[in-house]
Write a structure and sequence with these properties.
The protein is mainly α. It has one domain: 3-Layer(aba) Sandwich (Rossmann fold), CATH 3.40.50.1110. The chain contains eight helices and three strands, in the order ααβααβαααβα. The protein has a three-stranded parallel β-sheet, with helices on both faces.
Length: about 190
């Protein structure tokens, strides 16, 4: 984490705040634009395939005790033409990968925390991309909660703690990062003891 000292903006991201508040070591695999889907993005590239990214992360890092997954916002972009049910299905695909015996065994078993991103807003430069996602994104938390429960995984609805930026409608401001980081830390502390 020493490299974050040179990037003060990165040290204020919610995963770093969560790790500090929970007293855990963090391996962060965040990538702006990544999809929950098992395919790439026609604009940003094939490397935005979240399911392939999860395989690679679980095969290259470890051992881990906890995996947190918060994806789905980028899947709402208009050029993907996805419904909220399809996006929830993509999350279910990610969680199926996370539960594969060979991956669980590689790490000696690990807990999974599914995090539903907050609903999007049609604001700023991303408004055209997400204008039709405002209403559907409001039900993503409920769908993710059902999937997490069915798979016996932990769940947190970020939308119960923060809102997306009023500037661009999809990202989080500094206060939201801090709030979400603390909320995730509070959620994970009981099952990491």
């Amino acid at each position: 984490m020493g490299s974050l000292d040179h990037h003060p903006r990165l040290s204020k991201r919610w995963p770093v705040i969560m790790a500090g508040a929970a007293g855990v070591t963090l391996i962060e695999e965040g990538l702006g634009g990544r999809l929950a889907a098992g395919h790439g993005d026609p604009i940003m590239g094939d490397h935005m395939n979240g399911q392939l990214g999860l395989w690679i992360a679980l095969a290259s890092h470890g051992p881990i005790d906890l995996l947190t997954i918060m994806l789905g916002t980028n899947d709402f972009q208009a050029h993907h033409g996805k419904t909220v049910d399809q996006i929830a299905g993509h999350m279910d695909g990610l969680l199926k990968i996370a539960q594969l015996p060979e991956l669980q065994d590689r790490h000696g078993g690990y807990e999974v925390l599914v995090i539903a991103p907050p609903p999007v807003k049609a604001r700023g430069i991303f408004a055209p991309d997400f204008a039709n996602a405002v209403v559907p994104s409001q039900s993503l938390g409920l769908l993710y909660a059902e999937i997490a429960q069915r798979r016996s995984m932990h769940f947190l609805d970020a939308g119960q703690h923060i809102t997306s930026s009023d500037i661009d409608g999809i990202h989080f401001d500094e206060n939201a990062h801090a709030t979400l980081g603390r909320a995730v830390a509070d959620q994970i502390k009981p099952f990491l003891i």
